[in-house]
Amino acid sequence: MNSISTLLVILLAIGIVGLGIYGYLYQFLFRPAPNNPSKFLDKPKTKPRIVFAGDSLTCGNMSADFTSIVAQKLGSGYEYINAGINADLAYNLLQRLDAIIACQPDFVTILIGTNDANATFGKHNQQVYVKLKKLPQPPSLFWYEENLQKIIEKLQNETTAKIALISMPLIGESLEHPIYEHLKNFVQVTKKVAERTAIDYLPFHEIHFAYLQENAQKVRKKYKEKHKLIESAMLQHYIFGKSWDEISKNHGFQTLTDFIHLNNWGANTIADLVEKWVRKMMNDK
């Protein structure tokens, strides 16, 4: 075999291995949590049920998992249902709300909107989300508000659950980048919908902002539309066994693993908010 043939064989082998690795990682984009709503539809209800509704920040396979921390904090007196789906917008959550309602939840937390904000920041992002999530129209701030309102109203009309909206984390850690002001519009809508529908609002975004203000450091990574750091984080976690905190440090973040997903600081902070809210709701009964 001559040198050119040898090189081609090597490149082919590298390509096949690369495709295998990316195929393995790609499955996580569409894998629901083990305790997703479908697991509870035919299961008799014996304990109060907490449903965590949202996107990848809730699903917990691309981010530190705040839902499992909540379960550790509150203990075995509840059933915990993870209704997070990676890359979902508010529209997508609305489409799958019937399964959540069928679980007869007593508590529902909703953390949604990061992808709505991300999808409306640049033409590339919009095209990716429209195709990936089969959206019937281009996403917008108005559409986010409309879908979020419908989600809350449907839950209020068809369940007796206590409902809390969790405000989204920052996208990236730069407080000066235009993405921050863009995201803030979605956070304000989230808070407005919570007030309009008279449900509880858990201010994670505000806590996240304050933490970065108080612990200011030079931002090593600036937000880009093409999120290669997500692929890097998945590779480090699932192939090389790195923890989310190790990945966060490797990428130069304090609170995130890439520009979107949370390390353990973020997951623990959300879990604290949810735990206190559930305990308060139980005490107020």
What are the segments in which pLDDT stays under 50 over at least 5 consecutive residues?
4-22
Number of domains: 1
Note the run of SSEs as H and E.
HEHHEHHEHHHEHEHHHH
Our count of helices gives: 13
- What fraction strand? 5-15%
What overall form do the CA principal axes indicate? globular
Secondary structure class reads: alpha/beta
CATH architecture: 3-Layer(aba) Sandwich
CATH topology: Rossmann fold
State the oligomer: single chain
Any overview of this molecule?
With 285 residues, the protein is an alpha/beta fold. It has one domain (32-283): SGNH hydrolase (Rossmann fold, 3-Layer(aba) Sandwich). Helices cover 53% and strands 9% of the residues. It contains 13 helices and five strands. It has helices at 3-26, 56-59, 66-74, 90-95, 97-102, 114-119, 123-132, 141-158, 178-196, 204-214, 228-238, 244-250, 264-283; strands spanning 49-54, 79-84, 107-111, 162-166, 200-202. It has a five-stranded parallel beta sheet, sandwiched between helices. The longest helix is centred in the N-terminal third of the chain and has 24 residues, at 3-26. It is globular. It starts with a helix and ends with a helix. The model is unreliable at 4-22 (pLDDT under 50).
